[in-house]
TrEMBL record:
Taxonomic classification: Eukaryota, Viridiplantae, Streptophyta, Embryophyta, Tracheophyta
Source organism: Zizania palustris
InterPro entries attached to this UniProt entry: THO_THOC1
Origin: domain of life: Eukaryota
Pfam families in UniProt: efThoc1 (PF11957)
Name of the molecule in the record: THO complex subunit 1
Annotated Polar residues bias: 449-464
Positions of the UniProt region annotated as Disordered: 435-532
Amino acid sequence: MQYGNSLDNEENNCQITRLLDIVLYLCERGHVEGGMVFQLLEDLTEMSTIKDCKDVFGYIESKQDVLGKQELFGRGKLVMLRTCNQLLRRLSKANDVVFCGRIIMFLAHFFPLSERSALNIKGVFNTSNETKYEKDAADGISVDLNFYKTLWSLQEHFSNPALTAANLTKWQKFASNLMVVLSTFEAQPLSDDDGKLNNLDQEEDAAFSIKYLTSSKLMGLELKDPSFRRHILVQCLIFFDFLKAPGKTDKEGPTGSMKEEIDSCEERVKKLLEMIPPKGKEFLQSIEHILEREKNWVWWKQDGCPVFEKQPFEKKPSPAGVRKRKPRWRLGNKELAQLWKWAEQNPNALTDPERVCMPSVTEYWKPLAEDMDTSAGIEEEYHHKNNRVYCWKGLRFSARQDLEGFSRFCDYGIEGVVPPELLPAEVRAKFYAKPAEKAKRPKKEEAKGTSTQPKEQQVASATPETDGGVSGVDPEEGAVPMDSDNAANDDGRKHSPEEVSGPESGQCEVEADGEHNMKIEASKDGPLKDTA
């Protein structure tokens, strides 16, 4: 590859990528020096255009995990830092803002948090960024020249706040100029329409670094710009935060009178930021949060930048025979604690109308009905009837909505509760009888009751004769009960065929005829013995 050739050609781009992969593989395996891949990347960025450097840096970002390994990072971190810094110097701060941000973010992730190379421990300020403004008013423009000079003179103090804090004369000049600017901002507040005209929401999509023009002709427009006012006021808060930050010695801090002026000016600046549309209160809260984080950064640098990354504790195996300590739960066990935590995280879950979906009885017992089908081949251990929780819920469910099915539990068990429409024909016959069989059962019981009545009457009529041996009545009188018995037996014969059917009815008729004949013979023998 020749110096200055473009990498737009896919063939050249693939060859360079393969070369970098090979060198990285050799460095990772220890076949070549670990810093060779970093040196190759530095040479490649130096000989490439800005457009091609974006592709090279994309490769660096994709291999960040491999380049950050300890065996490679120790030998190439300084080369990588030099490569990124040289690339940042070549980029335009106005046109290549996104690319600059990518490089800075890469350095923040590539180097550890405790790295001292980017800490600016000495606190050096960028004094090369000078703000030049007009000393005389332009022709044909009506502008307050004194206010114009006062406003732009603040940038001299913002660029080097340490010099202003050390010199009392400069501090007094800065304080007087700032009072004039704050009074002007308070006298000319911005309305909501001014915030809408600038379309700040649309400007967020376009990332660029703002460098406001200092022409006196633009003074009136810049004062109506909310973004311009926010930049000036945020610079004031950063300046005050630097002055109030603790120094290495007590002499470097502000005096008592300076503290009072700083507090009063800071309060006025925050009120102005809160009044600037749009979303002034939210913007002020974000700035305060950033400045609060900055204080922690300052304290860490003052302590000498100690390493605060701690290695994880090694798990030591517990000695043999020692019982592990049971975990303590807030509500007694793990399930209740998780349920309570879930309820706190989802407060609207209990009021959700779709939270409880009550199934019908048919839908609930459908799994058990499928298991009862022999053609399904469900093994006994996987049968739903062995699931106690499922059966218990189903019984409570049937007791509320299907009392007829619930009543069959005592006779047939849990399988009898299943609705009949879910069961196959052969299974349904075991638990549900036909209507004709149900009708026969009460008739059979009634027939048994009527067949026992004639027997009881016959025994009652025969007892007076057997006890005494000889009756004390005439034959004519003794014949009366026999006639009544015959009439009762005749009635029993008439009713028995209608009420009793089958072999039982025939047996009852034979027994009744036999008893009747025996009683007639006994009544005939009785009077003959008596006369003899």
